[in-house]
Hints:
Elements: H1 2-27, E1 50-55, H2 64-79, E2 82-87, H3 93-102, E3 107-111, H4 116-122, E4 130-134, E5 143-148, H5 150-164, E6 169-174, H6 179-195, E7 200-205, H7 212-224, E8 229-233, H8 239-248, E9 251-256, E10 267-273, H9 275-288, E11 294-298, E12 305-309, H10 319-334
Parallel strand pairs: 1-2, 1-3, 3-4, 4-5, 5-11, 6-7, 6-8, 8-9, 9-10
Antiparallel strand pairs: 10-12
Helix pairs in contact: 2-9, 3-4, 5-6, 5-10, 7-8
Amino acid sequence: MKTKRIWFTALLLVLLTSMFLTACGKGNSPDANSPAAGSSNSGGEQKKLRAAFITPQKLGDKGPVDMAYSGFEMGGKDFGIEMQTVEANKGEYEESVRAMAQQGYDLIIALFPDLLDAVERVAPDFPDTKFGMIIGESQQPNVISVLSKEQEGSFLAGVLAASMSATNKIGFLGGVDAPQINRFYAGYQQGAKAVKPDIQVTPVYVGDFEDPTKGKELSLLLNQQGHDVIYQAAAKSGLGLFDAVKETGKYAIGVDVNQNDLVPGKVLGSMVIHYDQWVYQLMQQLKEGTLKGGITWHDLKDGMIGLETATPDQVQIPDDVLKKIEDYKQKIISGEIKVNDVPEK
């Protein structure tokens, strides 16, 4: 009996020890519904967020690509997000977007309408990935589309151009003949005709966003035909306009970033679009966990676009012209003036 009692006591101690160790093991594991579950690596550190920036145009355009990238870079640094940049080649857009999704990036920022079709095909296959479509309208639930009413800021550029033209002939240099670029032209045309109904507004298109040589040739042609102010919406191709006015002494109006100092005394203003802030906001929302699919339109009212006229030390623009621009701006913001997004024929 004594031997049996000793054996039973030993067995009971083993069982109690096993139960204690099991309970401790459960206490050290995060509950499946707790905030820690799935958000930490094996070392207990918070999972690092990752974002990719894909552009169909190369960096170094001194325009929208560089501006958007600056917002991406700043957001990555400010919010501790790991960054990857891809300059996608034509014919490989979908492969580039899909590769970033397959590599598990939390946010994929796709720049310009060129990448819209690729995003539309890839996004449904990766429902847990967020896609930021900069200038491209998507209905996919995991795509955040960000666009602007370029025609509103361009209307003011048209007011400026018409007011400063001595020949009653002004030009427009577009990258490609496409709806998004024609929003720039539509507003420019309408704004110019609001000031001078009989003014001639002539558009030309480079057919590419990365050919400043052809941009210069077309600008020179417009100048030779008597167009004394040209507004460009052509990215890197638009840099050719500034080379042209150096030779002809005519006026230019820049776009996307403030280009007023590119040719001293010859740039009347720039229609600035704050792509950097658009991208930075997406990075911030990724960090905060508030990214949601949908469409956002920026305009004159929210200050994400606007005309930045030359300073007096750059070009002397008469006070009455500056007042005229401001008056039209307020009429657009109030809704009194509706700006066309398609050019008049």
